[in-house]
Amino acid sequence: MIEARKLTKRYGEKTAVDGLDFVVKPGSVTGFLGPNGAGKSTTMRMVVGLDAPTSGTVTVNGRRYARHRAPLQEVGALLEAKSVHPGRSAHQHLRALALTHGIPRRRVDEVVELAGLGSVAHKRAGAFSLGMGQRLGIAAALLGDPETVMLDEPVNGLDPEGVLWVRNLLTSLAAEGRTVFVSSHLMSEVALVAEHLIVVGRGRLLADTTVADLVREAGGGTVKVATADPARLRDLLAGPDVEITGRAGSEELRVTGLTAREIGLRAAEHGIALFELTSREVSLEQAFMDLTRESVEYQGGGAGGGAGTDIAAGAGVGPVAGAEQQDQATTAGRTV
Amino acid sequence: MSTLATTDNGTGADPGPGAGTSPTRAARPDYRVTGRRVLASEWAKLWSLRSTWITLTLGLLFLVAFGVIAAIRYKALAGSPRIGGDFAASTAVSLSLFGANFAQLALGVLGVLITAGEYSTGTIRSTMTAVPRRLPVLWSKAAVYGVVALVVGLVGAFVAFLIGGGLLAGTPAALGLGHAGVLRSLLGAGLYLGLVGVVGIALGALLRSVAGAVAVLIAALMLIPGLATLLPTSWQDNVTPYLPSNAGHAMFALTQDPTTLSPLTGLLVFVGWTVLVLAGAGYRMVRSDV
C-alpha cells in the first residue's frame, strides 16, 4: 500500500511533482502513466526516500519508508537509472544488499535464478546488457520478499521474452496479494497488466481510474451506423441504456450501449438497409494521449495531434490510429 | 503461481508485527537492518571490488619501496661530503617513512573512491534504499575502511622500518625498534594513514565527485603547506602547524622542533580535521537528495 498526500517536489523554479494525492492498493497492478518528464520517477524516488518531498507526505504500508525496520521487506524498488557498480558481479551486488537486512545467501541465489541471471551471476555487472541490468534491478527489488513492488519502466531494454516475463511476474505478484506499482510512458504496455491507472502530466494528477473506466470515458464502445432510414432505426434501437446521437439530415447515427452485432441483427429483422456498421474502439493509447496532450513536455515538431508521443504499433489494445482521424475505426466484423 | 513464497524463514508460523496480509504466503522472515549488518555489507562491498586490492597493494608498495629506496640512497651517501643538510639529519625512522607521502595518496584516493564512486556509478541509490537512514552507511564505510587503511599503514610502516633499518645498520641514522620514540613514530604513521583513509571517505561523501574530492585531498595534504609559506611570518607560526598535513606529520615525526606540534597534539588536531569533514559529509548525506 502506497499513500501519497499532497506530495510535492520542487527543484528551484521547476515543480516536478505538484500536490499528488493517490493510493496504490494491494492485490492488483497499478500503472503509473505519464509522458516523459511528468514526475513519475521523482515520485517513485520519494516513495523510497531517495528524494525528500518539498511538502506533503508519502507512506508505505502506513509509515514513511525510512521508518521501517526492514525497508527492503516493505518495498522492492527498481528505479530508472542504473544503480549497480560496474565492477561488482550480480551476486556480489545482491549479497551486499542482503547483508544489510540479514537476508540469507539462499535468498540471493533464489532471486538470481528467478531473474534468469544464473549463468551470468558471477560476471561483472559492467559487462551486462541493458536487459540484463534490468533483470538484476528486478532481482534486487524482489530480494527482501517485499509487500510492495515498485518498478520504474521495467521493460526498458528487455527482449520480447523478458517483456513477457515481467508481465507474468507483475500479474503473479499482484495475485499473491502484493501491491504492485509500475510506471511507464507507454499506455499499451501498462494496459496489458494493470487494472488501475494513475495518470500524471507535468507533476499533476490527471486521472486516478481503472483501465475499463478510462476507455469508457474516452468514448469507447460507440457504434457508428449509416442507414437509409435513420429515424426508424433510432426508434427501433431506443432503450433504457442506449444512447443515440445523430445529426438531422444525416444518414449517420452514433449508438452507445449496443454492440454492432445487436444493431445489425435488429436492422435485419426489420429490413432496414445498413451502409456502414462500425464499432469505434478508442485505443487506450489514444485515450492516454487525449488526457495528457496539454502536459506533454517535449512536443515534436508540427502541431498535429499526437505529436511528441509514441504510438506503439501492434500494441494489442485496439488498432493504431489512422493518420487522418482521431477516432480509430474498425469494422464490426473484426474481433478485437 | 507463486514467485516469491519460497523464502521460508523456518522460525515458526508466528507472523511478525509487519507480517503481510496475504493468506497465500508463508510467515515472513524477520529481516531487520542493524548497525552490525551495515558494517558487514560495507566490508563485503569493499573487498568485492578490484580497485580495493590494487590500490591497497599500491599503498603498501609505496610505503615499503620508497622507504627502502630512501635508506639505500642514504647509505650510499653516508659519510660522503656530498650529503645535504636535511638528508644528513635523517634517522632510520624518517628515511623508512619517506614513502608515507605517497602511500597517503593511494589510501586517501581509495577512500574517495569508496564513497564518491557510489555516487558516480549510481550504487548509492541501492545502498540508500537498503539503509534509508543513511548515516549508518557513512559510519560503517569510515569504520571499515579506516581500520583497513590503519592496518595497511601499520604493516607498511613496520616492514619499511625493519628492512630500511636493517640496511642502515652502522650508519649515523641507525636506530633500533627499542629506541625512544621509534615505536611511537611507527604507530603514529599507521594511525595517520588510517585517518587519511577516513578523510578520503568523508571528502568523497561530501563532494560526491571522485575528481573533486581527489583534488581537495591532494590540495589539503600536499599543496597547502607549500602555499602557507606565502603567509606573513607571524601568521605562519600560528597557522602552519595546525594545517592537516603538518599536524599529521607531527604524529610520526621522531623529533620535534619548536615550529611543529607534539605527536599527541598533532594527533588531536588531525582527528579534529577528520571529524570536521566527516560531520560535513554526514550533514550533506542526511540533508540532500541522493
Structure in words:
- The complex is a heterodimer of chains A (336) and B (290).
- Chain A is of the alpha/beta class.
- Chain A folds into 2 domains: 214 residues, P-loop containing nucleotide triphosphate hydrolases (Rossmann fold, 3-Layer(aba) Sandwich); 60 residues, Alpha-Beta Plaits (2-Layer Sandwich).
- In chain A, 31% of the residues lie in helices and 25% in strands.
- Chain A is built from 11 helices and 14 strands.
- Chain A has a 6-stranded mixed beta sheet, with helices on both faces. In chain A, strands 11-12-10-13-14 form a 5-stranded antiparallel beta sheet, with helices on one face.
- In chain A, helix 3 packs across helix 4.
- The longest helix of chain A has 16 residues.
- Chain A is elongated and about 75 Å long.
- Chain B has a domain of 188 residues.
- Chain B is 69% helix and 0% strand.
- In chain B, helix 2 packs parallel to helix 7 and helix 5 packs antiparallel against helix 9.
- Chain B is globular and about 80 Å long.
- The N terminus of chain B is likely disordered.
- At the A-B interface, helix 2, helix 3, helix 4 and helix 6 of A face helix 1, helix 5 and helix 6 of B.
Considering residues with a beta carbon less than 8 A from a beta carbon on another chain, report the largest interface and each chain's count.
A-B, 55 and 47 residues
Structural class estimated from helices and strands of chain A: alpha/beta
State mean pLDDT of chain A (0 to 100 scale).
84
Q: How far apart, in Å, are the first and last alpha carbons of chain A?
A: 34 Å
Percent of residues in helices of chain A: 25-40%
